[in-house]
Amino acid sequence: MSSGEIQRFEQEILKNQAVPPDLRALLNAAGSAGDIDPLREALGFALLVPGRDYPLLTGSYLNDSDRQNPDIMANVAVINDVLALITMVAESEDGDMIGYWHGPEGTPIGNAPIVKLDTEGMFFLMQGRNLSEAMLGNDTFDDAECFAAARAWLTGCGIPIDAMNWRELSTPEAPTRPDKLHDLLYEQKRIAAGSKAGD
Questions:
Q1: Are 123 and 196 in contact (CB under 8 A)?
Q2: Is residue 27 one of the residues assigned to a domain?
Q3: Most buried residue, 20, 45, 51, 89, by most Cβ within 10 Å?
């Protein structure tokens, strides 16, 4: 990315929050190889581009039938409520979105665990203590050779990775889990709409 693109990313994607050190290194790496995205090549992710439509974030995947289904639209509303507590920063090759989980507590970006919203509309906290480790674990999982190669790439970007394999990545903790919050809010919307609890 050029310096102007990085500045726009900080303003529009991060909303002028402090840039975590590993994300700063990834932003710099993303601008170093012309048309080839080294992050996508190494880890299967691309940093979000300001102004681009990401269907999971905008709901542009919804069709007319979806919009007439109250259960689907209730779920979309709850997903948006949970997304409001996340700073999304990257998309996987599979279309999943990942970012920083601030939660209702407003955890600062530098301390926030990494959360994934998958293409099924499910939220998950990801293994790892920062964005780079979460990407590393997601892309390589239990493939030792891939893990070593991706870890070496991150180290070459100036991002130290203590874990030597996927199992050594830390387990995230959060006072409120995004998946549990989603389930709670969805149940509340269903009850408010006249459904019985547990239906």
A1: no
A2: yes
A3: 45
